[in-house]
C-alpha cells in the first residue's frame, strides 16, 4: 500500500498553520481536501484555499514599478523549539505558467524561511515571495504620449509671426486648459492615490510646466515689444517743437 487516506483527518494532530498577513481566507470545495499517511510516517495534508493577503507597495516609480508581495505561513501556538517550518527540497512550489493580472506580470516566485518574534518567543515561518512587474504600456498610451503631444502642439506658437499676437496667445492657453482638464480622465482609476510623488506625477508636472512656460514667454515678449514701440513713437509736443523750428528757419 503506497499510502493511507484518512476519512476523518481531524483525528490526527495538525500544526495549526495560519497565514500571518491574510486579510481573508476561504476554503474551496471539500473535494480538494485530503490527508495521506505514508509508510515512513510522512503525512501529506492538502487543502485548497483562496487567500486575500496584504502587500506593502512602493509606487514611487509608477507605472514602471516592480513589487514583491509575500504570503507568510506560520504557527502562533508553537515556538520554533517545538515546530519548525522548512521548504521541501523537491518541487516545493508549483506555479501555473503565464499567470498574470490586469496590471502585473508574474516574474517569478520563490520560497524563503523566516522567523516571527512575538512576546511568546520566536516562531518559525515560511513565505512565498511573488515578484510582480507592472504592465506600463496602457499608461504610456493614455498619459505619457498624449502629454508629450500637448507640449509639441503648444510649440507651434514659436513659429507663428510675432504680429499674430492673439494666435500666439491662444495656442498655449487652449493647450494648457485642455491638458489640465483632461489629465484626470486620461489616467482614469488606474493611478493609485499616494501621499508621495510618483513617476507619472513628475512627467505630467513637467509637461504642464513646459506649456505654462511657453505661455509666459509669449506674454513677456508681447509686453516688451509694446514697451519698445511706445519708446520709439515720438510724443506730440516734440512734433510741435520740430514744426515751429522749421517755420522759424523758413522765415
Automatic annotation (TrEMBL):
UniProt KW Cell membrane keyword: yes
SUPFAM superfamilies membership: Neurotransmitter-gated ion-channel transmembrane pore (SSF90112), Nicotinic receptor ligand binding domain-like (SSF63712)
Compositional bias of kind Basic and acidic residues: 228-243
Domain Neurotransmitter-gated ion-channel ligand-binding, chain residue ranges per copy: 7-134
Annotated keywords: Cell membrane, Ion channel, Ion transport, Membrane, Signal, Transmembrane, Transmembrane helix, Transport
Major localization class: membrane
Bilayer disposition of the protein: Multi-pass membrane protein
GO MF annotation, one: ligand-gated monoatomic anion channel activity
Transmembrane regions: 139-159, 166-183, 203-224
Subcellular location(s) of the protein: Cell membrane; Membrane
Residue segments, region Disordered: 228-251
Matching InterPro entries: GABAA/Glycine_rcpt, Neur_chan_lig-bd, Neur_chan_lig-bd_sf, Neur_channel, Neuro-gated_channel_TM_sf, Neuro_actylchol_rec, Neurotrans-gated_channel_TM, Neurotransmitter_ion_chnl_CS
Superkingdom to which the source organism belongs: Eukaryota
Family recorded in the similarity comment: Belongs to the ligand-gated ion channel (TC 1.A.9) family.
PANTHER family: NEUROTRANSMITTER GATED ION CHANNEL (PTHR18945)
Protein name according to UniProt: Putative ligand-gated ion channel
Organism of derivation: Ornithodoros turicata
